[in-house]
Amino acid sequence: QVQLVESGGGLVQAGGSLRLSCAASGTTFNFITMGWYRQAPGNQREWVAIISRGGGTNYADSVKGRFTISRDNAKNTLYLQMNGLKPEDTAVYYCSAKQSIGQPTTWGQGTQVTVSS
Predict the structure, then answer these.
(1) Which of the pair, 87 or 99, is modelled with greater confidence?
(2) CA 6, CA 67: separation in Å to the nearest integer?
(3) Helix (H) or strand (E) holding 1
(4) Model confidence over 9-54: pLDDT tens digits?
(5) What band does 73 get if pLDDT is binned at 50, 70 and 90?
(6) Where are the strands (E) in 1-117, listed by range?
(7) Whole-number CA gyration radius for the chain
(8) What are the two backbone dihedrals, phi and then psi, of residue 92, each rounded to the nearest 5 degrees?
(9) Phi and psi dihedrals of 29, rounded to 5?
(10) Using CA atoms, how far apart are residues 45 and 29, in angstroms rounded to an integer?
């Protein structure tokens, strides 16, 4: 069973930066995909970024050029470097991981990111 724990959230001024981490523990595999999602109060959870086992990445248009997703496969850790933060980035950020095709996606508990105007 895989457990994911996010960290690195907090309060930051607009234009600032944060680096989120997501550490996997338990029985782990080299995940085929890992990703970041976010949800603001009253909004739907939205996809932010995804990274494949081989390092290929994709981003939501809203964060392209500002956010960078990366992973350390040896440590089973996912990162999200967030630069040029905007108030609209305020949300709870969740990490996800999928071990293989046919396995359910595992979700973390989330970490709050608040960007002040």
Answers:
(1) 87
(2) 16
(3) none
(4) 999 999 999 999 999 998 766 889 999 999 999 999 999 999 998 8
(5) confident
(6) 2-7, 10-13, 18-26, 33-39, 46-52, 57-59, 67-72, 77-82, 91-98, 106-107, 111-116
(7) 14
(8) -85, 125
(9) -125, 170
(10) 26
Q: Return the structure tokens found at 88.
A: 């609209």
Structure tokens at 38: 């976010």
76 confidence band (pLDDT: 50, 70, 90): confident
For tokens 């680096």, the residue is 19
Instruction: Kindly state the greatest CA–CA separation across the chain.
Output: 43
Structure tokens at 97: 């991981």
Residue appearing with tokens 């996912």: 78
Residue 85, token pair as written in the block: 């933060």
Q: Read off the amino acid at residue 64.
A: K
Burial class (CB in 10 A: 0-12, 13-18, 19+), 75: exposed
CA 52 to chain centre: 13
User: What is the rounded distance in angstroms from the CA atom of residue 96 to the CA atom of residue 110?
Assistant: 10
pLDDT score recorded for residue 28: 66
Is 70 exceeded by the pLDDT of residue 3?
A: yes
